[in-house]
Design a protein that fits this description.
Blueprint lengths: L2 E4 L1 H8 L3 H8 L3 H8 L8 H11 L3 H4 E4 L10
Antiparallel strand pairs: 1-2
Length: 77
Amino acid sequence: MGQIILRLDRVMADRKMSLNDLSEKVGVSNVNLSKMKNGKISAIRFSTLEAICEALDCQPGDILEYDKNAPAANRPE
């Protein structure tokens, strides 16, 4: 089974946006965005994903990637 890989850090770097700036624009805490940026989450609300895409002017596929060959990660509970 593969895994979903979060590429939020890459998109933020491409847009030259800091975690603090994104947090303010999206209305999500730095802690939660940091967890997302580091791939330490197991779920994301569509409303949060929409707000991130709006703030970064990107598509969900720019942030989320599926790697069918990657081993399934130990997901946080």
